[in-house]
């Protein structure tokens, strides 16, 4: 289900590239499965007539985690889902880069990459509350990038880019998420209360699958 509500309004302040700048390291190791997860029949977050989406949904009490955690981000549903060994644990609305339903081709295209990634670290961030940095570009990312260069889809002098993560928003900008405003340079963005919740489940090594 492709939910997309066009939003046209001024963004206060300059857009800042997704980066690894952070403080207060809170990462630790965790082993997870890298098996891709198929979409479930779980209904995505929906919007009211005003365009406002509901807050996060929990299938079980928050913090009740069993076994390793993995994250599945469906770009077409604008939703991030958290799974453990018992199944769906929590879900949050998210937004992406400027062209949310297109795979990242190169540095500067402001697209969110697709594939299987790992969380490198989980830290506080001075602008966006928390930063869950991903290991993009992976070997798979480079393979797609090089193929696109050969096919002429990417300029010969282009770079693959880096600095992709999951983070919050600047204080007061939660409405970006409510209104499907894709403001990042390729990162995945949640409301600040939601990134705080998500960070409880996530450690270095947590698997993150980004798909349409």
UniProtKB/TrEMBL annotation:
<feature type="signal peptide">
    <location>
        <begin position="1"/>
        <end position="22"/>
    </location>
</feature>
<keyword id="KW-0573">Peptidoglycan synthesis</keyword>
<dbReference type="Pfam" id="PF03734">
    <property type="entry name" value="YkuD"/>
</dbReference>
<dbReference type="GO" id="GO:0004180">
    <property type="term" value="F:carboxypeptidase activity"/>
</dbReference>
<feature type="region of interest" description="Disordered">
    <location>
        <begin position="20"/>
        <end position="58"/>
    </location>
</feature>
<keyword id="KW-0732">Signal</keyword>
<keyword id="KW-0961">Cell wall biogenesis/degradation</keyword>
<dbReference type="GO" id="GO:0008360">
    <property type="term" value="P:regulation of cell shape"/>
</dbReference>
<dbReference type="GO" id="GO:0016740">
    <property type="term" value="F:transferase activity"/>
</dbReference>
<comment type="pathway">
    <text>Cell wall biogenesis; peptidoglycan biosynthesis.</text>
</comment>
<dbReference type="InterPro" id="IPR005490">
    <property type="entry name" value="LD_TPept_cat_dom"/>
</dbReference>
<dbReference type="GO" id="GO:0009252">
    <property type="term" value="P:peptidoglycan biosynthetic process"/>
</dbReference>
<dbReference type="GO" id="GO:0071555">
    <property type="term" value="P:cell wall organization"/>
</dbReference>
<dbReference type="InterPro" id="IPR038063">
    <property type="entry name" value="Transpep_catalytic_dom"/>
</dbReference>
<feature type="domain" description="L,D-TPase catalytic">
    <location>
        <begin position="69"/>
        <end position="211"/>
    </location>
</feature>
<feature type="compositionally biased region" description="Low complexity">
    <location>
        <begin position="20"/>
        <end position="50"/>
    </location>
</feature>
<protein>
    <submittedName>
        <fullName>L,D-transpeptidase-like protein</fullName>
    </submittedName>
</protein>
<keyword id="KW-0808">Transferase</keyword>
<feature type="active site" description="Nucleophile">
    <location>
        <position position="187"/>
    </location>
</feature>
<comment type="similarity">
    <text>Belongs to the YkuD family.</text>
</comment>
<keyword id="KW-0133">Cell shape</keyword>
<feature type="active site" description="Proton donor/acceptor">
    <location>
        <position position="167"/>
    </location>
</feature>
